[in-house]
Amino acid sequence: MKKGDIYEGVITGFDFPNKGSLIIEDRKVTVKDTLPGQKISFMISKKKSGMAEGRLLSVLEPSELEDGIPFCQYFGVCGGCAYQNLSYDTQLKFKEQMVKKLIDKTLPDYEYEWEGIISSPVDRAYRNKMEFTFGDEYKDGPLALGLHKKGSFHDIVSVCRENGCALINSDWRIIVQFTLSFFTERCVPYYHRMKHEGILRNFVVRQSAASGEFLINLVTSTQWEQYGFDEKILLKDYTEGLMSLERTGELSGGGIIAGILYTENDTLGDVVQSDKTICLYGQDYITEELLGLKFRISPFSFFQTNTRGCEVLYKKAREYIYDSGKVVFDLYSGTGTIAQMMAPASKKVIGIEIVGEAVEAAKENAKLNGLTNCEFIAGDVLKAIDLVSDKPDLIIVDPPRDGINPKALDKILNFGVNQIVYISCKPTSLARDLKIIKERGYRLVKACCVDQFPQTRNIETIALISRI
User: Fold this and answer.
1) Which of 38, 150, 247, 336 is the most exposed place for a label (fewest CB within 10 A)?
2) Confidence (pLDDT) at 436
3) Which pTM does this prediction carry?
């Protein structure tokens, strides 16, 4: 076996989130984007001691798991949905099996209560936020606005055409298509991420599930003048065009444009960030409702992308809390959703979040909901936790995908609280942290999955951890 060799075989093993495997010449070969039972053709892309990695060339025979019919014309091309070829029931069973297998592998011969998986109330058109990218669908092709093509850093798939992306509703497609047409007609170039030249970068859309309000954010470089454009006139015309969609009733789904923002971003990295953000129309937030509480969502605030699924997730997390205690720490608190749900049953709740804008939104949200016992601190958990004089009775963590920084985890465990509720959007990170938590004298009491991301490989997991 050597790099470049082509083989055929049947996927027999699988690891979260998308790593199928099979045995070739007594060597385990991992091939991403495959399913158990598929017969595939693949090329060896990497070889190392006792193992190898392969690149999928084609699926020769489908798996028995593939009992669904893809309903998006871009399935398999776009890098978003991966499981449209599985019925939703099969998706749930498959995700549950993967997470349970991962935890059991991390904690072998370990007794804990497994509570299975909870489905999302909606499995289509559930996204309340999307980050679209400007680019082209092929080299030197026309302007495109959509999502990255599967496996490509450069190519963009315009998924918002008719019968396109099924994770958003028709109003989103109208808004995105108008934006693409507007800048295509005026020959505004996209920002080339390698050359660092061009203007159009990203297009971020948020929508409140409670009110239908849209918050629209156009993200560009500041190179307008270099290409001969009058930025102010162009943005004024663009804003008026967007508002005409609402006035003429083209937003048939009842969408209301609450705010249109313009963000300047000259960072070299391929990331949506703000050097400067101005409001072109309306307001710079939308209002969402969650379990009886109201939340103002600003353009760069973290908020779960499936609002109805989020309610299920937080209800379940609340069930795991058997004693809220006097002082609760909500670490990686975002806009303070969890903190505010805990506030009525606690003496004090302290949230720590690294995104300053989210912290300010959390403070406003607490006022909006009449909560006076919530404190929010802006900073990295690793450092900010040292600034808190209060000692927690309960800690809730909802870290980013990479999990908890090991040094921060050490500080969290040093508090010695009797109960930790860990909400994870990446089970492999949770598994890694569970191993450390176990070594520090804690045990996993129970866990379950909540499907926040139907049609995709992603899944949320909630773990209740207690001190031995």
Assistant:
1) 247
2) 95
3) 0.92
